[in-house]
Fold:
Amino acid sequence: MPVNRGVLQRYRNLLPITDATPIISLGEGSTPLVRSRHIGKFIGCEDLYFKLEGCNPTGSFKDRGMVVAVAKAMEARSNTIVCASTGNTSASAAAYGAYCGLKTVVLVPRGAIASGKLAQAIAYGAKILVVNGNFDRALELVRQLSNSHPITLVNSVNPHRLQGQKTAAFEVVDALGDAPDYLFIPVGNAGNISAYWMGFTQFFQMERTSRRPKMMGFQAEGAAPIVLGHPVENPKTIASAIRIGNPASWKLALAARDESGGRIDAVSDDEILAAYELMAGKEGVFCEPASAASVAGLLKSAACGLDLRGKSAVCVITGTGLKEPELAAQHSSALPVEIDATLGTVERALELAAVGR
Ligand code: AN7
Structure:
């Protein structure tokens, strides 16, 4: 198997890079597209796939965009990067910042990011500022900060982020031989749905795909500004990664929805948690709740009459469940059983009859 040389090398000609752009990589991209064994059958969609973005180096899709943003920051001779984050962006920025010797500053909302994401930012040595306010406020702060200081903003308002993230759409097309009929994706700050649409559109214009998918985006019910048509001041959802009330790429997401003939809808926390359990328990994919929103959206759409028979669909699984291990224990029936260290107690715990010894 060849070395994974990463997104910059692999898509050199399709990204805004120059001879002066350093070709860096932590092995991002080239993530698996796996076929569903359970959920597809359940909803009558034989061609259902999951794009496992949790397999990226820091456990989320953010690495695809971060590698481009950081390379461009280095090209511009910046020595400090900053972002606001619900967790994954900060983990990714901190990793690439460490790898490239940049100073990384992350602003995260107090008490509102998963423990594993915070642990990553700490381990990678970022300067972590915990803000008494939500993500939207933190994003306002870093926008102001980067406007008045020589610090590069690496949130998805930095266009290089979306450029990198569009490569996931390229991979989906290459894996399936064409674009799917539908793409289901969680929506938070709305960068990723916009990036996928850019990627599908670019491949369509290059005639590397015969069509573009309908873009099906899903917000959490308590954090659904795009669905409601106005910002949400105090967004609430168990899916902390998409607890965002005023998405930066709002207009781009609406364009993706409308140009593709897709939808942006909301799913409840109960629907998100049911999909989160189903993905782990029936598909063997331990994803984070925000990622499960795409699957919850698929199930909701099918239940509301979307006929997926004979159609192909891809759910983007944006991040790994390992970043918030506490949540699994709160939402699973398969809890650990403590036993004495004897074969008899193991057998009793498994309801196995003892074989004569
Ligand atoms: C797992 O890390 O916004 O709609 O600051 O971590 O492109 O924002 C994360 C978002 C989906 C939503 N799934 O993507 C951040 C941040 C996961 C995420 C989203 C996020 P966008």
User: Anything to note?
Assistant: The first strand starts at residue 33 and ends at 35. The radius of gyration is 21 Å.
